[in-house]
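Is it possible to get an amino acid sequence alongside its tokenized fold?
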Amino acid sequence: MHLLLRLGRTGLLLLSGAHGAVAAAEPCADLVRQSNAQLEAMRRHAAGIENSLQRLNEALLQAEHRNAEQTREIERLQAELLAQDPHRHDAVKREFYRALRRRLPMSALYEVLSDRLIIASDPVFIFGKGELGAEGHERLMPLADVLQGLVPQLPAQSPWRLRIEGHSDRRPLRANPYFESNWELSASRALSMLRFLVDQGLDKDRLSAVGLAETRLRDAGQDKSAHRRNRRIEVHLEFADAAAP
């Protein structure tokens, strides 16, 4: 009886040990299930975020496309409005030169009127030549910077152009080894100004150059001051239907 009892107790003891191992394994299995469930929830959340980002990108692309279409339509309507109302050209010009006057630094080199910009020739061109001097390039850089900021504000679809005019004084050239007359000199200087602006980033298709010699004097006097005032470059904002001949 005593042996059987011990065996019985041993059996009970062994049975109790097996039951404890099963009981210990159950919390681990629960942790694994919980971890798997959390991972699955995180994957679903990440997939939801990815889908949301994709929808957002698609919406942004559509908005950019609509904005581009609206911009083109606005530019088209502006061009039509300007074509139908030529007086608006004058308003655009006035605002252009007002902005130019505000932004250009104070200098005796420039004179900004309501319909044109006047640049003195003597401080920027080499004497008797059509080329800009090194100091001339430096002195004209503020103008190039301002024009680069203003030109993009002009109606892109409108047929505007910056017309660069070269003007001379009324005295005929004598013994000039480079030019036969003021016509060639003034044209060369206008072209040099155009090339300078193109080199600084302005669109060559929006620029034109012409030499007018002494045909449009600012000052009819005969003294040195009058001659100096007449030697100049003028920049005009022109539209195709109102361009100067």
